[in-house]
């Protein structure tokens, strides 16, 4: 996938450095059971107010499966971002099947809270 192949609807698309940091946080969140997988779970966590932020894959086919999530995120005031590939998102999640979206949830006593807040701020800066 090249820059020309990227759909303009996948905004904000994070750069390689921030992608690596975000996927590390996703992997750590998975160890603390703070992670869900898929568009349906993303919608549920957003509606319940449990999402800290949501990562989505830009190469999802068809893209319309996850295009309701940015609108819902903006409505619920939850930061969101797109990474380039579904495969990198699923590897960070620890599964072999492609993952189109991944919400990181908030629970009491969340140990990665400071990292989460800094990433929320960096994702919000991308949206501006």
For the biggest β-sheet, the strand order reads 2-1-3
- Count helical runs: 5
Shape: globular
Work out the radius of gyration.
13 Å
- What's the story with the biggest beta sheet? 3 strands, mixed
Helix content: 40-55%
Global mean pLDDT: 85
H/E element sequence: HHEHEHEH
- The CATH architecture is 2-Layer Sandwich
- If you consult CATH, what is the topology? 60s Ribosomal Protein L30, Chain: A
- The chain-level structural class is alpha+beta
- Head-to-tail CA distance between termini: 25 Å
Layout: helices, strands, pairs:
Elements lengths: L15 H16 L7 H10 L2 E7 L10 H9 L3 E4 L2 H8 L7 E5 L7 H15 L1
Helix pairs in contact: 1-4, 2-3
Description:
The longest helix is centred in the first third of the chain and has 16 residues, at 16-31. The protein is built from 5 helices and 3 strands. Helix content is 45%, strand content 12%. The mean pLDDT is 85. The chain has one domain: 60s Ribosomal Protein L30, Chain: A, CATH 3.30.1330. With 128 residues, the protein is α+β, with helices and mostly antiparallel strands. The chain has a 3-stranded mixed sheet, with helices on both faces. Helix 1 (16-31) packs parallel to helix 4.
């Amino acid at each position: 996938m090249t820059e020309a192949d990227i759909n303009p609807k996948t905004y904000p698309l994070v750069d390689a450095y921030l992608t690596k940091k975000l996927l590390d946080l996703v992997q750590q969140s998975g160890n603390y059971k703070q992670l869900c997988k898929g568009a349906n779970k993303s919608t549920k966590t957003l509606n319940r107010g449990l999402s800290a932020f949501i990562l989505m894959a830009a190469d999802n086919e068809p893209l319309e499966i996850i295009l309701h999530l940015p609108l819902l995120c903006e409505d619920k005031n939850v930061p969101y971002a797109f990474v380039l590939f579904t495969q990198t998102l699923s590897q960070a999640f620890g599964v072999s099947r492609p993952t189109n979206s991944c919400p990181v949830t908030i629970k009491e006593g969340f140990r990665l809270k400071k990292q989460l807040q800094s990433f929320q701020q960096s994702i919000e800066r991308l949206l501006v």
